[in-house]
């Protein structure tokens, strides 16, 4: 984890928290422990960082801890909440939905919880999606199911219309589970709400199967994705080893960050080459990937390659900045491209190879969370509820230095987290694969 | 299972079985039970078939049971055996290799067992593949691994060269594990052997993940394939249900026979349409698949489709009979084609749909066998050894009416097994999916 | 499968089937294929059995095929059905419930389907269990859940009270899923119904995770049980191999028949000793189990033992014929007993051993069915409905010689199926474990 | 994570690190990034802790980072290393063995690596265990296997004899993987080595499936254990829900700390009661567990209970401080005890209950690591090698505040980590189970 430059870690509040939390018993006692003002965790924790920071003026940067407060903002008996899941599927969505619903219902006594259907479309009248009433019975038995019981969609919707809908429905807290784009929309929604002087909290839970949201050291669903990616690697390895000059090629998720590819290669160490967006590589030339692959085949008779979907985008000229519905740049398919490039290269050399290509993406995204992610999602959901009830807004729930914290939404979306080419993760990949840098001298 | 027309169920033998089996103790007792001449199982077992057969002259058609014989042909102390796996990977190959090696080694006392590398290539000097010496230690711990420790390859090799190799290596029994093409090659090899008057048994174990070999009521790896295909169906269903007008499309194995697609759809009943080679369907028109799909989306908002790779080949004109290395006709990709056809159709109608396409083929083929397949493979391997030791040749080990039997190799390759459009399996698919015939009136 | 002596394979009917099946279209056509009177499958299919039978008078013994009939007995618009699951849990119960409900509802148009709660208790007023209304929505999403959504209980209830309840509720078909004891109760219920001259079909689906019901060549849940038992064997093997003189002992299900123990040992071949009820063994003495185990430890340093729960009951004197609620003889715990006997034996010899004992029973019984069992359960459920609608009674749905058939209930409960000590399964166990008979000379 | 009082975080070194690391290229460059003296991470990272610490004299407490150093102590060409695994099995042992061997062999060029068999017994001549030569081929394919390829044993051995053996074998680095007891032995071994003025590094990797080693925020195998414990919970829930007044009782690992029980209950939220050693509870009385259970049954008809093996030890009087071979106090079996207590209680009240007891312990310990643990173990092993090569001794590799660090061995064994009854984890358990404190007023 690299040094984070952040000065303002303050969280916006929609009003003074003056209501006594229903988590407290009448006599002020509780089985629950509460978070106090002073409960904060340092942003940067390397000794030399701290020593440098101490030379500067001002306090050490720290995040406030997530968790229940003694005083909250909302009177839960009259509160209506809404919940929406946006963007691509990710293991754990149903866990989060369930834990938000149960926490609101059983612990804060909120009885009106709306599930907006199909992402941001759910707010927009023209799509005609019904709203789903959520209560404990509606979330029973959903943990073993992948996907999202609310459904999802990609792409932005008009901010004004969304806030109109929130007003019309008389919502007090809006929980938004989504990626980068969703969180940027959430900032705009929260700003429009403040502009209109409404009392609506907007609480985000960052969703990124790629694990690439800044200041979010771990995102839910990532470990499940790695877990199952290893199945694809085992398959590719068996196929590769099963034929003369067998090549197993697996494309894994990772549009801008290669965390899944790198971590999966460490989890199932049959991989010989890992290609990720953060580490540039050449195909041709003496140091290029194809020459390295040829060497490997000559030596061992087979090879396994993991490529992140965002790797090698430099090979696609003129894709003209096309974007998908979510506004993401439409990537050209590096998996298909590599498969073709390898076939052509070896054909040109008169070497017969057997290439097997595996793209497990949708089998992974649609899985239920594994045990560890499930526990993690439970905490994210409960902490999102605590934050919302306390009147926090423009806030995301994150995991930082082993604590659940409140991170200002704008900070989390300010840039992207990536694999450091000189860090511990990539070093480990280089060590375990035996892969060398694949760049020709300029 | 339909009526089988077969008159000659006799198995060729390379010589008189006059050696006492090492499975017998010195005093003629044994913990093992033995198969006798009279141990045969009927080919056809429906009452009306039998009644009809009894009207005819000649005996009722029956297969001889597989299993150990008291008298065998080979003297195991001097015997050398060879083992080869051919064609595409299939769950269970390592189980079969292991059980053949252990049975030969421990029970018959054979000490020289060669594993030919990379399919039929292994016999041909120009490829330069080493031979693998097989003994119990080489097959320890291989059951949990998918693929084949011997490797495989596709495509034919020159029969004369193969038999030259067998002669040179002084092989007594050749075990061939492979599909249709391999078994046809095995017939030619066995014939060339008989022609040259050599004493080499050729014993086949039919391999077809598609479960489409004639007279083989169950082929190893098929159940494992179905088992794991359900994971792809669950994923596709979650993706489909997760978006407005979501469509999950899974392409499963099945070049000429839709057993995997049909059975997987019964095992995971989230499927709405199953498309297989045996049941013709139209895309366009009032009764066509696209109209049916549109209706389903209008009604339920999402749909899951399973297509066997060999379905709908009529949509590809002019693919000109191209064949792959195994001599199989190269199929055009129905999955990609359907995905495109659906996208175009709904775009033309102004209906937004979300199509997710899953092709899990190589993740399935490369798996280890599940428990049930593993037990099955153990029996196939042991029975192949019993057959070979007894001097049987041009024989495959099959499962017929719940008995392991010897089937003449030529009979098993005489035609292909397919899903009957009027049988119990397809009826069940129609019932559980609610799918109707998708043919327009001529 | 051994020769079955059966003369009367006729199925009782509660009345003439004169109603046209709703599976037929108005014009008499159907996408479904129907079973005709003549569709029967031979009971015995070994050639010599048939030849012997042909010498006798009378027709060859055959079972009628299960499946839909063109003419049925019940008018589905007025029909009420009841469904009950009894005895211990078994993978696949929910699959059967679901397929019965969907078949009745969608294909026959039956709208009133009652789920009786907690086994036979559900019929008896004093327990006060509510009845569950079953319709497609109540069985959605239950396939991935183990157990039974209806619940179960052990033990008999008064037959008269059960039939009173059926009369009171105006039931036309009663589906009973249960084991030996349940099917014997079903016979009595059906007889009492016939006695009272009521028009109620009683259709049984045999449930036995032990796979020990006579004339039922395969029972649902068995393959799933074997599948998961292998996990326990792997664990026991790792524990055994992990310590000096490590011994892994696994107790598996099998009260009177060792099918699970024997088959699991073939599926995961790390097992050195298999102890089952059908094969007598001594503990002490030169040929006894303990001496054999000592030899194995001396040779290899570790050992894995699988014992069926019903094995070695001779070691328990004076357990006085105690029975459990289901009337089964209460077995003494052979697992605990063996663990103690081994500890004592090796202590006496001054040999330090490390014994790890695994009893996975309830983790297995409570699982959902695997893919193959799921497909199987679907057929059992649908065929049970076809049988019931046709007015068959005192019938169980079985799998015989690869066909689904109607078996007279009394025949199926007439005796128990066991592992033959001279058959193919036990021979294979002896071969793969290297185990010898463990009996001392008398 | 609570405040840690530690002043001395210095790591002992056996000599000056003056050899250039082989990880550096000849020209001093490297693909690897190196750890510098200044690379340290704070021990305590809560803001108020830091603020308090800053008031005190002396530097902020910090751990040095684990990882490769530019200068190391050992000349790898002459170095011999030894590796031992001690105590109970734990998922990930083989991953650690493999990563130590591969790192030593490929990256540092160490060619002599000994695997000591069966824990500390391996050092003691009288046991006669062979040493295992370890090289890349010996660790190929071991990742998918549970257990330890080296074997293990419990219990102490004479320190002098162990150091004699190290001297005799001319070992330079000893890697010890084990729990509390093992690490305490490691301290003594390292002290004896220093005493004898030998140049042997002792590097520990803390193993505790219970996750209860102090200052080790995460121990390998724990997540895998939680993952699989959820299977037992699902099974227990299905059994409980399957019968009238069904009770599913699962005993999970946790001798002194309830992390597995608590976390598993969050991962699979079918649990109603969690009993752990850290939270006292009564059985009898108005607030006791049995009364609470009775209430739950009356309300919902079934209940699921998870008990950690070390919970409720107060109920066992006079077990007299017996200890097992590892010197651990022998716990009385709380699972069996609870089962009996519940049976007696409800029998006394005339309430029929169905109790199903599951003890999955050995099925969990013997598993291979899941993907996430596998990645973690790889880092532990590689960092242990870096530490040893640098001449560090009396050090364990730990994970602290998301960094891999060097922790003084004595500090890590100074006390035990436990679940805080007022912390986030236990609060979450109380929330999700709905469980209340179960203590009667004094």
Automatic annotation (TrEMBL), chains A, B, C, D:
The active site is at residue 210. Its cofactor is Mg(2+). One of its GO terms (molecular function) is diphosphate-fructose-6-phosphate 1-phosphotransferase activity. It catalyses: beta-D-fructose 6-phosphate + ATP = beta-D-fructose 1,6-bisphosphate + ADP + H(+); beta-D-fructose 6-phosphate + diphosphate = beta-D-fructose 1,6-bisphosphate + phosphate + H(+). Its EC number is 2.7.1.11. Pathway: Carbohydrate degradation; glycolysis; D-glyceraldehyde 3-phosphate and glycerone phosphate from D-glucose: step 3/4. Substrate binds at residues 208-210, 253-255, 309, 362-365. GO terms for cellular component: cytoplasm. Keywords: ATP-binding, Cytoplasm, Glycolysis, Kinase, Magnesium, Metal-binding, Nucleotide-binding, Transferase. It is found in: Cytoplasm. It holds the Pfam family PFK. GO terms for biological process: fructose 6-phosphate metabolic process. The keyword Amino-acid biosynthesis does not apply. Homodimer. This is ATP-dependent 6-phosphofructokinase. It comes from Desulfatitalea alkaliphila. The gene is pfkA.
